Structures are given as structure tokens and as C-alpha cells.
Amino acid sequence: MTKRIETVVLDCAGLSAWIVQDRQVAAMIQIFSELESDLVISATTIIEVSHAGVNIPRLNWLLSRIKVEPVTKETAKASARLLKEANPHGRRYAIDATVAEMALRQPGPVAMLTSDVDDMSKLCGGQVYLIAT
């Protein structure tokens, strides 16, 4: 990377990896933090990452350290347009669309930690630097 990344978006996989203290993800987040990049998630990511096995105290601690973007009527409409333009099939892309929409309106350059590089590349159209987790 030649430019400083202004914003780092974590999708469900990125946040999940941080919760379980995955070494690679933790190291990347440490570097981004040292570079003063903003860490951001969509509010829908909290829902997606929450399950019976998640460490809730750790999740809550991490949430206190990052920006959580709400999903509003306007952002939901923009996400729906993005989904229609990208043309992926199935409702499983709905949350991905909200995360992509949120990433696209963050101060750039923007990077995203994701396990869905193919899907996110369709939704973000090359405007977000995608880092596989």
C-alpha cells in the first residue's frame, strides 16, 4: 500500500477474527491503529457476528473501540440500489450490501477485512481495497 488507509471496515469475518484474536487480523488491526486509521463496522455486523459461542464481554470491549454506523431508511435504500446494480442473487447478500454501502461512503482510501472478496468486489466495484481474512 502506498497511501495511508483512512478507514478500515470490518465485515462479519473480520470482526469475528478480531474477537477470537486471530493473529493475522490482530496484527493488521494493530498496524492500522498505529497509522490512526478509523475502524468501522455496520450495525448489521453486530447482529451477524452474535451467536451462542461469541465472547460477549470481548465483543462489547471491541465495540467500544470502533465506530458503528447505523442502518437508516436512507442507507437501506442505497444498499438496495447497490444490490440491484451488482445483481447478485439471493437474500444472503443483503447484509453484505449494507456493509458495502457503508464502506463506500467512508472517508477514503478505504480498506475492508473480509472473507467475501468476490462478493464484496461486485458490490464495491473496486472502490474499496479488499483484504482477505
What is the spatial order of strands in the main beta sheet?
Answer: 3-2-1-4-5
> Total domains, how many?
1
Note the beta-strand portion: 15-25%
Q: What is the share of helical residues? A: 40-55%
CATH-assigned homologous superfamily: 5'-nuclease
End-to-end separation in angstroms reads 17 Å
Based on Cα principal axes, name the global outline. globular
Encode the helix/strand succession as letters: EHHEHHEHHEHE
Number of helices: 7
CATH C-level: Alpha Beta
C-alpha Rg (nearest Å): 14 Å
Tell me about the largest β-sheet: 5 strands, parallel
Task: Estimate the mean pLDDT confidence.
Answer: 92
Low-confidence stretches: none
Structure write-up:
The protein is of the alpha/beta class. The chain has one domain: 5'-nuclease (Rossmann fold). Helix content is 52%, strand content 16%. It has helices at 12-19, 23-34, 43-49, 56-63, 73-86, 93-104, 117-124; strands spanning 7-10, 38-42, 67-69, 110-114, 129-132. Helix 1 crosses helix 3, helix 5 packs across helix 6 (93-104) and helix 6 (93-104) packs across helix 7 (117-124). The chain is globular, with a radius of gyration of 14 Å. The model has no long low-confidence stretch (mean pLDDT 92).
Throw out a few tags for this protein.
133 residues; alpha/beta; five-stranded parallel beta sheet; 7 helices
What does this entry show, briefly?
This protein is of the alpha/beta class and 133 residues long. Helix content is 52%, strand content 16%.
